[in-house]
Input
Amino acid sequence: MKISTRGRYSLRMMIDLAQHYNQDFIALKDISERQSISKKYLEQIVPFLNRSGLLITYRGHMGGYRLSKQPSQITIADILLSSEGSLNPVACMDNETNDCNRKAECLTLPIWEGLSEVILNYLSGITLQDILDSGQGTPEYYI
Output
């Protein structure tokens, strides 16, 4: 499984918003400068996060973005599922129902299902607040 640039930048944007959670709405320009991500790229990320209900948007003068929930209520899985669409290791598992014609005889499917479960459980166990609490050091998350 490989996380795309959109997924990585979504996470960085959300961490930035979590760091400024108690402030007013944050302009994309400010996030762009702090995170060294182009404002244009952030504009492409916002609809995914917005559609998933992770952001509150305020347009106009003094407009910007805020987290829709407290940092302790938003998981890394929420963010990555929003921006990546799926965290499954193989394409046949992306649909709600696996309609692969080899499903019944596929000896590797249980491996991919198990891996998918581990990934989702791991990322669901880490919140934005956990990242903030870990400070500058490397957080210790165990599977």
In short: The radius of gyration is 17 Å. The first strand starts at residue 55 and ends at 58. Helices lie at 5-19, 28-35, 39-51, 76-84, 109-124, 128-133.
